[in-house]
Structures are given as structure tokens and as C-alpha cells.
Write a structure and sequence with these properties.
heterodimer, A: about 240 residues, mainly alpha, two-stranded antiparallel ribbon, B: about 90 residues
Chain lengths: ~240, ~90
């Protein structure tokens, strides 16, 4: 069996090989789990909003709680102007959350443990926020890079630093999610391997560790989805309300 | 009616402390992760810019070294800003 702790991150194609120009776009296990995530969220919300009773039943209550949680998060961090972007942030949050949670099921695949997936999402947020900023403020959005009250001598250096700081946003956003998920899952697998190799005599200690780690990983899965969503809100706030 | 209001006030007095400490405990690991990745990302991006500028202007190692240190400065600035923001909440 796969004793290598990195084996779980392998992407392989399922079904026929599809080639588009120079790109291999065959259906992989990563795509399968993304489809699974999206359909799970869709089915949940379709079921939850079917009855729409004034006194909600259990599933509707959960859906309302998720809605209110994200709604409060947006109004707390980005204010009223960010209201139109609510659907995007809700979908982003739910996608990351459900991907992370599906990854916690044994033998499944964690989509968010691949940097290309998280980087694609972070880049989308970054480009979107930049476009919103320019659309809202025009050229004066560039004032973001020129903080007020800086001596003229230092200004060129400060502007370069600000630009680097702005460009590092998608990297830090994506690396954080990817590193957390990958490190956690590798650790779980390593401790699982210890249980097998130490056998019935010594395997109890790593077994306890992996149970504790599973709990921790579920917390991390939620926390990272939350951090991803809230940082998107913060970047949106910077773009909507220019204050420097 | 008065009893209920009294009870509500009592709950209000008790509750804030509890929820605050709960939140702090939950997110302290998130804060640590956020700060560290902020630092690394800035150094990485700046070094990348330096590397490609070097390639373009054919001034090999100098711009890379310069931008590496600039990235470290930016990283520290980012960490300070993020922790300021966290403290404000």
C-alpha cells in the first residue's frame, strides 16, 4: 500500500486523455473532487431553500446561519459598499470550506493542498480587487502606493516597498492555505504510518496523536477557509475605501 | 416583564468576557500563520522581481541582493501592519 506520505497528493487522470493544443485537460481526481464539492454545496442549498417556511426546519436553519455568518463578516470588515460582492465571497468561503472538509474524509483527495488551485483563487481575488479599485477611483487608486507624510527623499524607496507589499498579497493568501492543508495531511499520514510500523505494542501513542491531530485539522480546515474569506473582505475594503 | 429585563442585563454583563476569550483562543493560531506567511511572501515576491530585473538588465547578482533586503523590509512592514490591524479588532 501507499506508505509514502506524499502519495495522497498525486494527481492522476480518470477516463480518457483530452488534449487541447498544448494543454492536457483530461478529467483528473482533483477535478472530480471539485465537481463533488460544488454539487454538494448546490444540493445542500437547493434542499435548504425548498420550503422557505417562516419557522425554519433544521436544514434551512443551517443555511440561514451560514448566510448570516458571511453577511456579518462582510459588513464588519468591508462595510455596506461591499454588499454587491456578497455572492462571490459566500461561494469562495463555502468552496474552500467544503474542499477542506471533504479532504478530512479518509481516502479522499484535498483539492486545496495544491498550490495551483489556491493560487488561482488568490489571483482571481487579486485581479478582481485591483479592477474594482481602478473602476471606482480611476487613476487616483495609485495613491494607495504613496502614503502621505513621507519625506521626499524616502519616497521612491517607500513606493517600491508598497508595490512589493501589494504584489505579495496573492502569494501570502495562497501559500497560507496550501501550506496549512498540505502540512496537516502529511502529518496525519506520517503518524498513521507509525501506527502500522510499531504494531500492536507501540502503536497506541501515535494512534492517540493522530486522533488529536484529526481534531486539530478539522479546526484548521474551518479556520483557513475563514481567513481566506476575511482577507478577501479586507482587500475589498482597501479597494472600496481609499484611505492613506 | 421587569424580571426578564433584569435577566437580560445580567446576561449582557456576563457574556462579553466569555465570547472574547473564546475568540482569542480560537484565532491565535490563525494569527501566527497569517504573520509568518506575510513575511515569507514579501521576501519571495521581491526576490523574484530582483531576479527578473537582473536577467533583463544583465546586472546579475546586485539587483537580486538589493530586492531581497527590500523584501525583508516589506515583510516586516506587512507584519507590523497586520498585527496593528489585529490589535484594533
Amino acid at each position: 500500500m501507499a506508505t509514502n506520505p506524499m502519495n495522497q497528493f498525486e494527481v492522476y487522470s480518470i477516463g480518457p486523455k483530452i488534449q487541447l493544443g498544448n494543454f492536457d485537460i483530461s478529467f483528473t481526481n482533483a477535478s472530480l473532487f471539485m465537481v463533488l464539492t460544488v454539487s454538494l454545496i448546490s444540493i445542500f442549498f437547493i434542499l435548504a431553500t425548498q420550503k422557505k417556511s417562516l419557522v425554519p426546519n433544521k436544514i434551512q436553519l443551517i443555511a440561514e446561519m451560514i448566510y448570516e455568518f458571511v453577511s456579518k463578516m462582510i459588513s464588519d470588515t468591508a462595510g455596506k459598499d461591499a454588499r454587491p460582492y456578497f455572492p462571490f465571497i459566500l461561494s469562495l468561503f463555502l468552496f474552500v470550506l467544503v474542499c477542506n472538509m471533504i479532504g478530512m474524509i479518509p481516502y479522499s483527495f484535498t483539492v486545496t493542498s495544491h498550490i495551483i488551485v489556491t493560487f488561482a483563487m488568490a489571483l482571481f481575488v487579486f485581479v478582481g480587487v485591483t479592477i474594482i479599485g481602478f473602476a471606482k477611483h480611476g487613476v487616483s487608486y495609485l495613491k494607495l502606493f504613496v502614503p502621505s507624510g513621507v519625506p521626499t527623499v524616502l519616497l521612491p524607496l517607500i513606493v517600491v516597498i508598497e508595490i512589493i507589499s501589494y504584489l505579495s498579497r496573492p502569494i501570502s493568501l495562497s501559500v497560507r492555505l496550501f501550506a496549512n492543508m498540505m502540512a496537516g495531511h502529511t502529518m496525519l499520514k506520517v503518524f498513521g504510518g507509525f501506527v502500522v510500523s510499531l504494531g500492536i505494542l507501540g502503536g497506541w501513542l501515535p494512534l492517540g496523536f493522530s486522533i488529536a491531530l484529526t481534531g486539530l485539522e478539522i479546526l484548521v480546515a474551518f479556520l483557513q477557509a475563514y481567513v481566506f474569506a476575511i482577507l478577501t473582505c479586507i482587500y475589498l475594503n482597501d479597494a472600496l475605501h481609499l484611505h492613506h | 416583564m421587569n424580571d426578564i429585563k433584569d435577566l437580560e442585563n445580567k446576561i449582557k454583563k456576563l457574556n462579553p468576557k466569555k465570547t472574547e476569550s473564546d475568540q482569542n483562543r480560537q484565532s491565535s493560531m490563525g494569527i501566527a500563520m497569517r504573520l509568518s506567511s506575510e513575511m515569507v511572501a514579501a521576501v519571495f515576491v521581491a526576490s523574484l522581481i530582483g531576479y527578473y530585473l537582473d536577467k533583463w538588465l544583465e546586472t546579475k547578482p546586485f539587483l537580486l541582493i538589493f530586492f531581497f533586503f527590500l523584501g525583508a523590509v516589506t515583510g516586516i512592514l506587512n507584519v507590523v501592519r497586520t498585527s496593528k490591524m489585529i490589535n484594533k479588532d
